[in-house]
Write a structure and sequence with these properties.
3 helices; Alpha-Beta Plaits; 29% strand; alpha+beta; 99 residues; 4 strands; four-stranded antiparallel beta sheet
Length: 99
């Protein structure tokens, strides 16, 4: 199991375009082999910060996802909407025990 947290800073005037483009990408991604969940959220502190929260069965799924036709199509729109570079974290569900 692996989680991906991708945080996007979006230009206010381009936010609607990014959200519209994300709908097809989200629907197609949810059908990908190994995708457990894939959702887009808006920050409660900054409406121009959006975050994809993804859960995958294995890290091996990520290269195929990033090269998929629907993600390439989304990327062509999204790149015009970013106000800053996307911040991506890939994390595992391993817990750090309290000392």
């Amino acid at each position: 199991m692996v989680f991906v947290i991708a945080t996007l800073a979006v230009k206010p005037e381009a936010k609607a375009d990014l959200i519209a483009a994300s709908k097809d990408a989200i629907a197609a991604t949810r059908k990908e082999k190994g995708c457990v969940s894939y959702d887009l959220f808006e920050s409660t502190f900054d409406p121009n910060k959006l975050t994809f929260v993804e859960e995958w069965e294995s890290p091996d799924c990520l290269p195929l996802h990033s090269k998929s036709d629907h993600m390439r199509a989304f990327g062509r729109v999204a790149v015009k909407c970013f106000a800053a570079p996307v911040q991506v974290q890939i994390i595992t569900p391993e817990k750090i025990e309290k000392r």
